[in-house]
Amino acid sequence: MVLFLFVLAGILIAVAVNYSRGVKMQYGNIASIRGLWLPVAGLLAELPFSYFPAFAAKVPWLFTGLSYLCIIIFLILNRNRRPAVALAGAGTLCNLLVIVCNHFRMPVSVQALAMYPGMTAEAVYARKANYFIASGGARLYFLGDIIPIPIPHIGGFISVGDILLGLGIACFVALVLTGTIDRPRRRFHSH
């Protein structure tokens, strides 16, 4: 849910930039996004952790791998939007690294959990089988979901990787809607 706030931020940035330039939103540029279905597929690959936790917990590498593969392919296909892809790629790699190092589960800090009265380790696991409360420690803990977001109806926990990914998403949306694209250099072949 927090990542959708970054999408909204990107739209608002684009509105401000386009308004200051005296131009309309560049909605036609949405067609220039390659593999737009891939992030959607990546999100769908995470659903078994929420809706079929017992099954997903048996093969977490499968669903996590599919999800991150979709995101990485999307970033590669859209690498012409360099600043956005660099931020989103860094965030994606941070999240993937901490998840892989913790047996395909994202650690959540005890301190972040304490901000939500009544939320227990069991409740976190019941909602998302690919998370765990890092009360006994975790590998690369500082990359885990240790930052609480105490916003009603949106709140939760995020990681440094989520912040980088979110900034990349906001930048990507702003670049698309303002028409600011790093175009690949054309190579001319001599005959």
Short description:
The chain is mainly α and 191 residues long. The protein has 8 helices and 4 strands. The chain has helices spanning 2-21, 37-51, 53-58, 60-77, 82-101, 110-114, 121-127, 160-178, and strands spanning 106-108, 131-133, 147-149, 156-158.
Can you give a write-up of this model?
With 191 residues, this protein is mostly helical. Helix 1 packs parallel to helix 8 and helix 5 runs antiparallel to helix 8. It is 58% helix and 6% strand. The strands form 2 sheets. A two-stranded parallel ribbon has the order 1-2. A two-stranded antiparallel ribbon has the order 3-4.
Largest sheet: 2 strands, parallel
Number of strand segments: 4
Percentage of residues in DSSP E strands: 5-15%
How are the strands of the biggest sheet laid out side by side? 1-2
**Total helical elements:** 8
Mean pLDDT: 87
Order of helices and strands: HHHHHEHHEEEH
Helix content: 55-70%
Low-confidence stretches: none
Give the N-terminus to C-terminus distance in angstroms: 53 Å
Please compute the radius of gyration using only Cα atoms: 19 Å
Spell out the blueprint of helices and strands.
Blueprint lengths: L1 H20 L15 H15 L1 H6 L1 H18 L4 H20 L4 E3 L1 H5 L6 H7 L3 E3 L13 E3 L6 E3 L1 H19 L13
Parallel strand pairs: 1-2
Antiparallel strand pairs: 3-4
Notable features of this structure?
mainly alpha; two-stranded parallel sheet; two-stranded antiparallel sheet; single chain; 191 residues
